[in-house]
Amino acid sequence: MATIADSYNHCRSVARKRARNFYYSFVLLSREQRDAMCAVYAFMRYCDDLSDEPGANRASIDEWRAALDEALAGRTASHPVLPAFYDTVTRYRIPHQYFYEMIDGVASDIEPRHFQTFAQLYRYCYQVASVVGLTTIHIFGFESPEALPLAEKCGVAFQMTNILRDIREDAERDRIYLPAEDLARFSVREQDISASLRTQEFIDLMDFEAARARAYYRESQPLIGLVDRRSRASLAALITIYSRLLDRIERSNYDVFSRRISLSAWEKSMIVARGLLKLPVR
Question: Long-range contacts for 184-190 (Cβ within 8 Å, ≥24 apart)?
Fold first, then answer.
């Protein structure tokens, strides 16, 4: 059985290797908060991997849901992530329903994904991304209940950005996340996306969805001022990294089929460096 120290070491390793955007913002937090973020990230990373790995099935999701039940009751021996995860959830009083929502969202990705309406897409974004934001603000620290709906919107902005960036890879897995009502509005067919056809109609569709994501970034901006003062630089860096990724997608004129658009490690490091300069004296 992994000790709590071993478990945190494992979670830190997972976060360093897999959290391409999140990990950069972690360094702006205290050591305790950084470890908590790694523990939550490692749990959610494992959730997400369950739907993406070859041979993914509902049985593996159900096993992980059962492991979550056990972990939240203090029985954490079944996976090396869980001792640190349970310690973090308990220490920061994170509501348990967020993790069940995440598992439900991931479970829905096992089957081909096709949404009819934006309301359906929003619900999916809530399950796989907003709950991440709602979880992490408990680690950041907040007092005003106004932070909760803003964290939800911030998660939607992040997930919409991911969807626009990953549209080719998702289509290869038979996942078309953009709603059918939007495709019809811009005369884009699902088979056009699957065939990587970057038509003017597709560009117009993407421009519409990017503007929608941008609106959620704007609406969630006050969240930075609502988290604990010592956590604001980390949250601001994370929002900056994701919003700049959206900028880059837009500036490419939505050339998302030929390559995976990203920010370089140097660019993300510079965002974090500017955040370090703004940190209050502890």
Answer: 190/114
Pure H helices in the chain? 4-18, 22-26, 31-52, 58-72, 82-91, 97-107, 118-125, 131-140, 147-165, 167-172, 180-185, 190-194, 200-220, 232-251, 265-278
Q: How far out from the chain centre does Cα 108 lie?
A: 16
Q: Which residues pair with 175 in a beta bridge?
A: 113
Question: Coil, strand, or helix at residue 230?
Answer: helix
Q: Are 167 and 259 in contact (CB under 8 A)?
A: no
What's the pTM? 0.92
Residues sharing a CB contact under 8 Å with residue 24, sequence separation 6 or more, in sequence order: 237, 238, 241, 268, 269, 271, 272
Name the 3-class secondary structure at 126: helix
Cβ-Cβ contacts under 8 Å for 98 (sequence gap 6 or more): 131, 134, 135
Helix (H) or strand (E) holding 175: strand 175-176
**Residue corresponding to tokens 């993407």:** 206
- Give the tens place of pLDDT for each residue, 49-94: 887 766 667 888 899 999 999 999 999 999 999 999 999 999 999 9
The single-letter code of the amino acid at 281 is V
